[in-house]
Design brief:
- The protein is α+β, with helices and mostly antiparallel strands.
- It has 3 helices and 9 strands, in the order E-H-E-H-E-E-E-H-E-E-E-E.
- The strands form 2 sheets. Strands 5, 6, 7, 8 and 9 form a 5-stranded mixed β-sheet that branches.
- The longest helix has 11 residues.
Length: 156
């Protein structure tokens, strides 16, 4: 017995809970290339019953190719520590993937941002594509992919 086909009404969104909203907004805007679309305070009267833990500040960042990254800062400041180190062996969200036209300028921007490479080498050739894994300033893993697998650039 299958489930009916789900029809999406809008592009996909992902929420990332953060400690430092301004720093993370700057990273995803200036380095990854997202555009701030909306900023909102979610009151306790909505955040509590919705299972979000209370009052929140949310910044919606539009990904250039579509979709949205929502940066979520709980008012209570309960967010602690860095994200669990990356491992495909752990349950839950592993990483965010961004498809880019050219990995090289993005990698150079990441080198000067508060990000650290997780790939060794920094750019890896995989099935005709170039990929690179990075930890954002709070330790969330970001995968960057471009289709230029036949070329080696300065990020390699």
């Amino acid at each position: 017995m299958g489930v009916g086909v789900m029809v999406m009404a809008l592009p996909f969104e992902v929420g990332v809970v953060v400690r430092d909203l301004e720093s993370m907004e700057r990273f995803y805007r200036d380095v990854i290339g997202c555009r701030v679309e909306h900023r909102s305070r979610v009151p306790e009267s909505i955040g509590g019953p919705a299972g979000l833990g209370g009052e929140l500040t949310v910044v919606w960042l539009r990904v250039p190719s579509g979709g949205c990254v929502k940066l979520i800062r709980p008012r209570s400041g309960v967010v602690s520590g860095h994200a669990v180190p990356w491992s495909t062996g752990r349950p839950g969200l592993s990483y965010l993937t961004f498809h880019v036209g050219d990995l090289d300028p993005v990698v150079e921007g990441l080198r000067t941002a508060d990000a650290r490479p997780l790939s060794d080498p920094v750019v890896v050739l995989a099935r005709g594509r170039r990929i690179s894994f990075w930890a954002d300033p709070e330790g969330n893993v970001v995968e960057l992919v471009d289709g230029r697998g036949g070329t080696q650039g300065p990020g390699a």
